[in-house]
Request: fold
Amino acid sequence: MSLAYPSSPSGRLIHFLDLVLAIWIAAWIVLGLQVRHEVRGLTELSDTVEAAGNALNQAGRQLDTLKGLPFVGNRIRDVGQQLAVAAQSAVESGRSSRTHILSLGQLLGVAVAAAPTLPLLALYLPLRASRIREVRAVRRAMQRPSGERVFDEFLARRAAERLPYGVLLAVSPDPWEDLKMGRYGPLADAELRRLRIRRRKARGAEAGSR
Reply:
């Protein structure tokens, strides 16, 4: 038989780990989104700098209208030009800082969400894949028309090796004697319950129940 996969944790434990992992990932995603939102709030400073630049530019234009005044016209023109340069610099600085803040917020949000979850996924996904392969292999074996006794022996021995001692004794007071005498049914059913797999009804039993 091609059931050479290592025994995975019980179906109940796997489902519990799935739930814990889903909550863990969701919590870090929410935190990442919150960090992104908070960082993006810094764009208000950029907007303030840009607004101040526009105000300076407007003031420079107003002063530029006075450059024709005698005696002080040249000085007003120089001040207006300086204001225009400062205003342009402030506007460009505000726009540039806004772009950088938005990019930083995006990167920090992704980093906060991904850093704690990716290593955990790298550890958990191989275990989950092993569990899927094991369950599929057992289900394929259950669909075979022959070799049911050999399959039950395989499941029974797995149960004797993997089930907790208390659970094992609840199934059979002497599981090793059952294995020796070929009484595989209860132990095999216990292993299927551990995997959360339902045994197919025999064809004869199905026909008798119609």
Remarks:
- The chain has a mean pLDDT of 76.
- The chain has two domains: 15-118, 146-199.
- The radius of gyration is 36 Å.
- The CA atoms of residues 44 and 98 lie 8 Å apart.
